[in-house]
## 1
Amino acid sequence: MSTEAQLIERYFLSLGAARTDVALGIGDDAALLDVPADQQLVLTTDTLVEGRHFLPGAAPHSLGHRALAVNLSDLAAMGATPAWALLSLNLPAIDDAWLRGFAAGFDALARAHQVALAGGNLTRGPLSITVQLAGLVPRGCALRRDGGRVGDLLCVSGTPGDAALGLEVRLGRRPAAGSEELCRRFDYPEARVQLGLQLRSLASACIDVSDGLYADIARLAAASSCGAVLQVDDLPLSVALCAAAGDAAWRYALGGGEDYELAFAMPVEQRAELAGRAVAGGVRCTVIGRLRAAAGIELHRAGSVIQFSHSGFDHFEV
Amino acid sequence: MSTEAQLIERYFLSLGAARTDVALGIGDDAALLDVPADQQLVLTTDTLVEGRHFLPGAAPHSLGHRALAVNLSDLAAMGATPAWALLSLNLPAIDDAWLRGFAAGFDALARAHQVALAGGNLTRGPLSITVQLAGLVPRGCALRRDGGRVGDLLCVSGTPGDAALGLEVRLGRRPAAGSEELCRRFDYPEARVQLGLQLRSLASACIDVSDGLYADIARLAAASSCGAVLQVDDLPLSVALCAAAGDAAWRYALGGGEDYELAFAMPVEQRAELAGRAVAGGVRCTVIGRLRAAAGIELHRAGSVIQFSHSGFDHFEV
């Protein structure tokens, strides 16, 4: 017999980092946390639903990682330092192997980012994983979507599009052979938390790329009351993506989702500074366009303006 | 056509109270919130799953209320003032009437408690509602489960058991006629937030009664390294419950769930003080027993020790 309390004790009681600012963690009606006086609180939540965000049978270790990573990515886009997570799991049944794998995947990433699991909820239901993540940012220093100015450079971290192709492999639409790296990009997204911290003093606006670079740049531009010109030839395409997708690689980079890279706007004069810091942060950032005054996104490729219809993944597009 | 962004704008953008401490609300990657320097942050989350916590076809207005109320109750048990909520909705399809009703139920309760909806998530999936609620409590003043001492009085607010019988009506196991008030107690639980604030200076330990008074008192006692003696004859039974359940009324009061009342321990010398304040808070509190040194819960009824097997609702009891 396993009760909810026993399951929590077995799998979740000591997940993630131990933090001295957790005054009271799992086991009471709510968690008690100490927020430093000079910091603002940053709160986000994201959900993974079986059949929507992952396939039945997906590796639980990867799900534990992803459920946290997609929230870490939101905090990265705000320039925040992650601190405390709550985990709400709807499970169809008790499956010890699944729980062990999930907890291990969550734990490894939480420890890597010094995140404590401070509470949560376990209930029976169709498999769904909701993580709430709280972080901290010095007062007034958070990155937002709406700070971009006309003329600012638009940049993206890493190599967008890889995860979208990895997802196609996971969906059985492509052979896995030769695409192991792209699958890993989908299964184990790396939230750009360190980069987000560096961007606090460089970027004018920032967003995490979860629904596709084109759609998310469009959001950043609109929030900043701007439009944008993007140079398709400047998109940073990975060798693995080019090998797997050939001439369609740029379409994955623009339209694919699940990247969890950062897209940001930056005054031109910060370009040299970014180059130095991005190397330090371990992730390449590439200039791919500029904010402009006219609304909408214009794509340039080989000297011509081109059309691109994919507008990003939306859970309620009908 | 409705996108996730359009649905959020239509139904959720201005839910709840407007608060000046929301530096950035819905519409960015995360919310930015100002925590006063003398306060601790209190975080909780709770989920309602269709078929588990409510029946298919349940009134959406009631669900919007309940999803927030069950979280407010957790903060009440900590003696915290609620402040900011995140809402994660898994919806099988877009149903405007449902969304309108749900949003209205959530909104009314949020405004009543000065809670701002600061963010959230909408995705397709089997109907499931997760609310994360953040509140504030003066540093070091939070109520906990583990502060009870041998000899402390045990008390409960309101009239436990009503909601459990209301649930039986909702499940079709009892006729609704004559039980409208009990159904209302299930559909629209009142979180005891004001009482929780008053208890900060009176109670030694506190817990919210969600899984049944017996089970939750047992948790409070165990967390406080105590056992308890409960006087069944002292249970505060509502007229409506006695009318509907007759001789079994006390069993509902002890074993039913979904009460969202507060159970608490209190030094004997605070009894007069409680009587005065509880009247001010608008909810009656009743002494129903004492913490004792010996582990376990002993039930007294009509001068005898009796047995009670129901140990509370557990989502993973198998």
## 2
Amino acid sequence: MSEAAETSVITFLSDYGLADEFVGVCHAVIAAICPRVRVIDLTHGIPRQDVRAGALILAGSLRYLPVGVHLAVVDPGVGAERRAVALAAADGRLFVGPDNGLMWPAAQAAGGIVRAVEISRSRWRLEPVSATFHGRDLFAPVAARLACGAPLAEAGEPLEPGELVSLELPSARIDDGRLLAEVLYTDRFGNLQLAASGEHAERLGLRPGAGLELQKESGEIAPARFVRTFAEAQGDELIVYEDAVRRLAVAVNRGSAAARLNIGAGARLVLAPRT
Amino acid sequence: MSEAAETSVITFLSDYGLADEFVGVCHAVIAAICPRVRVIDLTHGIPRQDVRAGALILAGSLRYLPVGVHLAVVDPGVGAERRAVALAAADGRLFVGPDNGLMWPAAQAAGGIVRAVEISRSRWRLEPVSATFHGRDLFAPVAARLACGAPLAEAGEPLEPGELVSLELPSARIDDGRLLAEVLYTDRFGNLQLAASGEHAERLGLRPGAGLELQKESGEIAPARFVRTFAEAQGDELIVYEDAVRRLAVAVNRGSAAARLNIGAGARLVLAPRT
Amino acid sequence: MSEAAETSVITFLSDYGLADEFVGVCHAVIAAICPRVRVIDLTHGIPRQDVRAGALILAGSLRYLPVGVHLAVVDPGVGAERRAVALAAADGRLFVGPDNGLMWPAAQAAGGIVRAVEISRSRWRLEPVSATFHGRDLFAPVAARLACGAPLAEAGEPLEPGELVSLELPSARIDDGRLLAEVLYTDRFGNLQLAASGEHAERLGLRPGAGLELQKESGEIAPARFVRTFAEAQGDELIVYEDAVRRLAVAVNRGSAAARLNIGAGARLVLAPRT
């Protein structure tokens, strides 16, 4: 057993939450198949069935994850006709989950998909396969075998990477000196993560401390300020900042921007420098 | 140290939740006593003091758990006269927790209890034993010693298995072509897990797609449909399906059946095929 | 590699919660740097930015934690001028986190701080360091290197322990036969943990079963009873008991004392034996 093998890692992201035993059972299945693998729970708090939020978190976190097997289950189509897949990316990472775009942006960030396997009828699945818990019966067992060194080709039937479901995360644009961006995700603090990056802020000419106007789709306008950190916020003002994965976010220090603005994922905001 | 010993596993189920440090402290206690054991958190989201829900989850998950030590703490009687026990089942599994029925159905599923030990005054407990946190002071230390290979007989005083508190999960019955079943548990999605199995559905003659009537104790009747998966649900209709542990459940796709029907654990439902 | 090194442990406490990927990413960063270290999540449920609650939990749990690296991140001043530090305590424990008092009471309990290092510009940090996620970019990498055996002195610039921010937890006092104590913390069950110990109860002459009066700052008085365990509570009466870390707490069996009394952390209570 090589040193590399001894430190093999599965990262695990899902919308299962931690209130039920779903995550624990998947851990148990993995431990039974590959006792030496280490499982890192990336998060199980993805909003229920929100494939796009899951894709965003996985892609945004990828550069911090050890090269290994990335198990991801946000699966509104479980039991229906969607494919189940295992993917190899150009940089050596493996991905296991439903073929609904969830792993697509992360796999692109990993250099693109070089091989794909359809695993719905994998010899490694646990029989009988339930209609509703493929995390346990299909995805966890396949991830565990791969983490323990089994070859990808044995996981199922070969599939053309070009046939996989893709998912493009929304992007922002600057128009007439104003930034138009969609809210991608609301975290538990009520911070609104935008589909826009620190580069957009630079192109708007925003400097730390500068005033902004946030315009909602309703036309309502709220004042805000561009800051580098929460500590620069004054009182409970709305702030816009570049977050830890270099995306722009809207927040209220010690409060909730989502509640203040009464918006969430999917909402569109226009950001304009205050003049 | 044998290979088996190197991969010894404790599974851990409780109603401690993850908001406080209770689970973390138990992990620390285990790691200090038996550094090489792997602890798998089955779930800590059992509703507070709900012994029956804990028993249900543990028994329902057991076949997916590696043979090892199963630590379970849902303990409304902590500090009172209830016994604390360590149990050996016929299939080699060990159980550690309060003697309140919590581990009983799982131990039956593991072939029945072949040896039992009263551990309230175990030599392995952490002194001083608190009145309210036996998970840390008693159960975790005993589980850790057992996982590291210490013999069960040294955990405490021998106890006749027949003296243990038993717990029978409610069962369902079919009467005049209608299924009478109790709601065992509501998961975080609001799905209602029934004390009935896929076999009951077969005996009712239900086929995927078939219409049903759900009658509440109040007499109120709601239409539903028997489906194989969530993906087959149409709109926000009530569905009945066989869940991942082969129990029947009532659900609303992307919604909460508990909220829709305004019922929870302990409620009785009558399911009748629609004619 | 020594046996000790193979079982090195990082304990991890934060206010990140588990809904987002923050904790998972820190785990990933640690695993990438020091694959053999074991990370024990003490809790990530510290109320947001509540340094005092974090300090209380860390200090109260310390005697149960294996000697190792204690990573702690409750950091309202992230990105501002607060120092980031790694500390060595007299008993061999190491602490890594912000210099805002969070680790101070625990380090005192560990025999006091014998060496301190400012790590804001540590050579081990991940570049580029984000303005808002020092857990990932600074604290986790430093904790991982230390856990893998790197010397503290290499973590950053030496700092005089006397210059560190201290934090004293509030204490209680007995005045005219009455105990004056502050509510330190409300746990998820609504139990109110007081800044008072079982010793205070002894000095008041309280015995199990004795009646009490609880007086709120508003002057409102509620009857309560001093008991040894929850099981001794009668109905939904207010009880006062010595909790698992030997602190006095106010509770309602199967209910919430915080809701009943409508108070929380920071409130002051007067406890007087009922005559």
## 3
Amino acid sequence: MGVLTLLTDFGTADYYVAAVKGVILAAAPQTTLVDVSHEVPAGDVATAAFLLAAVAPCFPRGTVHLAVVDPGVGSPRRLLAVATAEARFLAPDNGLLTPVFGAGCEIRAVTREDLFRPAPGATFHGRDRFAPIAAWLLCDGDFAALGPVIADPVRLPVFSPERLADRLVGRVVHVDRYGNMVTDIPAAWLPDRPCRARLGSHSTSRRVSHYEAIPAGDAAMLTGSLGTVELSARGEDLARRWNAQRGDAVVISWSPPSVPP
Amino acid sequence: MGVLTLLTDFGTADYYVAAVKGVILAAAPQTTLVDVSHEVPAGDVATAAFLLAAVAPCFPRGTVHLAVVDPGVGSPRRLLAVATAEARFLAPDNGLLTPVFGAGCEIRAVTREDLFRPAPGATFHGRDRFAPIAAWLLCDGDFAALGPVIADPVRLPVFSPERLADRLVGRVVHVDRYGNMVTDIPAAWLPDRPCRARLGSHSTSRRVSHYEAIPAGDAAMLTGSLGTVELSARGEDLARRWNAQRGDAVVISWSPPSVPP
Amino acid sequence: MGVLTLLTDFGTADYYVAAVKGVILAAAPQTTLVDVSHEVPAGDVATAAFLLAAVAPCFPRGTVHLAVVDPGVGSPRRLLAVATAEARFLAPDNGLLTPVFGAGCEIRAVTREDLFRPAPGATFHGRDRFAPIAAWLLCDGDFAALGPVIADPVRLPVFSPERLADRLVGRVVHVDRYGNMVTDIPAAWLPDRPCRARLGSHSTSRRVSHYEAIPAGDAAMLTGSLGTVELSARGEDLARRWNAQRGDAVVISWSPPSVPP
């Protein structure tokens, strides 16, 4: 029995998610299906990439992760299949799998048209192409038989946080339901001395271990669930209060140690 | 192991969907449960009928489809069970199953009160009546034993698109999350020559195979995932731009071939 | 194969729900996962308590119910495990399990840190602590080994409806998607004679068995799916029309029988 996760921008009001699941269950009836999210903003490949990278490590070895945020559906864009030591990933070649690319991963362009489902049009490759490929993998189909290895997948721009003598520079990579701002700055980089996090004209020098330790109306840095610095309030949407969004720069700075004259 | 799909207007903030699933799992623990949607607008039987018809063909043979959009719950309206060559369907007798009725299908009014769950009131037949009937079918209960065959189920009005010498006349049958307008006009009816699709005061003569081929700000006809004509834009909600909604008339017309004088 | 239900305030746009499921499936792959709701308003422990109490009786004996609405995550608040004759429950010690506490239930504070998942921070105990404990129970781990029995769990205030000579006094305990107001007044308490339900300046004396029996634009009392009085309209959101919300007082009164002079 295999596990398949599904991440899309299909929403939950249409029949699209269930159509993908039906095709998979018809061919791989023992599959355990898990929704990651279908609320990715329409066409927002970067959000999908973040969510997939965050969730994949929680799943059992061998899980198949299918991610369909695919504004280029029907165009010549390729379908990618990626294998790592831990999991297999399927997604359009639009950068969605950027966080997965790394040493030891195998990236293939799917060319097995014989696996595709006959389809009236070219608007729903989630159902007609990705679902049968996923089912193939879940039924122990040979990964290497999906298509040729490629070396030039589309990649999203990757921003790396900077660690300088008197400051850390990064950005907001996600704003969650609660208004917590997840940054890409490793919490392990935080200095032992007092420091201040700035986002636009807002800032805080408070550091806490958990949300409830933040005084009401205040803000704080804490170590988030991905091991990076998170900016949060208590029981309040800080991103809204600070008018912040994904991509905003975050700078955490401190005074240099005084040097004897 | 059987598959059960669940389509309702219950929303996802209440406990209603899970209550139905709990009752089914208590009696049929091996069932694979798949949500179609629970975001059908409250009481919108026609939307539920569209979604069910669109998704059912994707599921494995023998699937039980349970659809509960039931503003008449508790009234004398009947509970229907329908068997086709491919699947079984359960829904209130309010037209929801109209797209399923057809040659060779068997329509029964469920009268097996002994299967119903004891209930304090008459407001939640999804949990108290439909769920145990679904579990009965999933446990290989005899379909014919559910109740008598009937010939007079409630039917929604069915509109058929028209194919005329110089035009096709149909309507919008669904607006999806992206703002694509799905029509009931078969894409195979589109003429080989240039044509123009009109909806109210808006129109387009562009025909493309996929969304990304539509210039930004423009609109186009394409073959949608159900094989019918879809009206779409690229990365934009065309239904909003055109102020269109389900039921709106769509006319696709062309100039007749010039006749030699 | 066990059943796990999941009730949170995580929303469905983030990866949080799937992360919990991944951790559970990695350790207990045969688990059947059922979402109760993830749309609990952020931090709203009382709503979660209501939903959990309403849905748990529908599930098979032995089900593990995991409920994570946990504004105190990372603080010294305890993690509770509760066993009843029917089911096991896991939740933070913040009152969420109040409706479950009762005669014969066993309440333990989880102290098995060896079961916890290594974690970078203290913000996601759903993934890092509750999920592995749930998996432990689903894999037939010993409930009594989770930690010591405690007698002082945090309890939400419990309001009991009152049954007086000429009236019933209760409150709205839930407003559902349709705008039905679920009260805590047992429907069995309703008198045989005419009565009137009042909520603020609004009232109705109509009693019906089902929604469709309510005239359009009117309101009525009926027996809801939990056996309590529900105040509803037909095809309309009565809570919005009456401007009502959870906690509002509801009084149902009648004239005393005339006494012979």
## 4
Amino acid sequence: MKIYRLAEIKQHLDIPSVMAGMEEGFVALCKKETVTPPVGLLHFDDPKGDCHIKYGYIKSGNYYVVKIASGFYDNPRKGLPTGNGMMILFDKATGTPVCILLDEGYLTDVRTGLAGSIAARYLAPSKVDCIGIVGTGAQAFFQLKYLTLVTSCRKVLVWGRNHEKALALKRHENLGEFQIEVAPNIETIASKCNLIVTTTNTETPLLFHHHIRPGTHITAIGADDVGKQEIHSALFAHADRIVVDSKNQAMLFGDTFYALKSGLIEKDAIRELGEVIEDKKLRRQNDEQITIADLTGVAVSDLQIAVKIYENMTLGKP
Amino acid sequence: MKIYRLAEIKQHLDIPSVMAGMEEGFVALCKKETVTPPVGLLHFDDPKGDCHIKYGYIKSGNYYVVKIASGFYDNPRKGLPTGNGMMILFDKATGTPVCILLDEGYLTDVRTGLAGSIAARYLAPSKVDCIGIVGTGAQAFFQLKYLTLVTSCRKVLVWGRNHEKALALKRHENLGEFQIEVAPNIETIASKCNLIVTTTNTETPLLFHHHIRPGTHITAIGADDVGKQEIHSALFAHADRIVVDSKNQAMLFGDTFYALKSGLIEKDAIRELGEVIEDKKLRRQNDEQITIADLTGVAVSDLQIAVKIYENMTLGKP
């Protein structure tokens, strides 16, 4: 059993192969070729935090994964990153641990960023005028970083409650290829951007249907736990396509959960990302449609990124 | 973050402190001072196996644990042990991993054995004539080993489907203090033993009420997953005390789950082990009573054993 620390993991992260593996994972998930039980959730009150345990396997695969990822929101004040965690890969035939990826939550950030870029690949309008980023945390960075894989647009508007962090994102040394401006409010983002990614931890919706212009695609990745909601339910009723990574999870939490609960949309209106990858008819059909991808994060993505890194490590590939 | 391998873990295992910690854990659990969500379960068909993920914390404590334990039943044919796994301890204030105990499932065996001895401490008859062990796997050994802490009886009858493994247990070099005989059938165990521990993986009940004589205590530790059942439900109806480690888990699986489902017992008849530790009136009251402890294994035991080992390691004890 091998144990890999973050520096080594970063060296062996081959984004194109991970992205391809994740697309295969989303397709396997929608075809019910995976076993991914409900997410294990731990909540902490003082200090406020949560820990998500995602686990599962692809039936035809060789491994199962257990991924542990935490968010403790007071950590930055202590000089620590908010997120932490690890991924553990096991032999599916024997239960033997194969490797521990001590990624400190990094791979969860990467696969969440890549899931956003996969959603944009299939749902964003053909011409992106400006990318809108709502929120200024780690995912604001990762979503932007991996959107370069699927759009040529480099104009960005960012908005968040913390103006300092918005300015830090604008000046981020690894986002130099973008022209990033800080928006005064979310309405400005909605009026100027037709590819919007929401990445906040909010418990009260920020984005409303009257904000959004026709032709916009929204990827919502912040509401990954009970109680969190970024997009007002009425916006779902105005969407031409509603896509989630996992329908089962969308029944339990996330923006889609609230939209369903409100009665403004029906379960049948929701498609899984794997279906959209497989079937062109389920993608955006024109540049007037409003599309939403609500991603709560799925175990099969953790599995696929862990497997790709392990295979790259053991095959000696980058 | 420290990583400890099995040999080092075994060196730092201080059984009395672990046992005391586990009793505190059972008490905290019954007083609802713990957060221990439902067990995460993965099942595998080919080859047959399962993986249990237990996780949680004591509200007043410093750590949370994630414990991963697997059982793959074809492993012995491949020269591998059935069980495997690890425990990971995290700082409850920040989510930072504190240590990984690569125990290969050993600590799950130890805490399961100790839970059995704790149950016997409070529920076994005052004079144990003979210990009956049903099953011949790892728990047959661990249950016996730790019963030495709570009873002076060294007479043992063992029965299992696999006669060779029953003989191996009889000759086990680390059980030399016992006089172990192999019983021809489970009825012999029931007729001669008044402290019986069932440790099998069976899906059809083995122990029936007409087998059992008055004054017997039964600890059932095998049925730790959906579908498994060792004790026929009617035996519960004949018991004077029904004790479980976790009522919440007993609603979901295990022998008590089936007894409740059958309608032969009521939920109110069930007590948690922590209550029995706290309240003498809930223990065995005389040597004619039949008592059952149905243990499905709780995250708080994993937490407590991991914390005790980590503290021993870092304090340089024992």
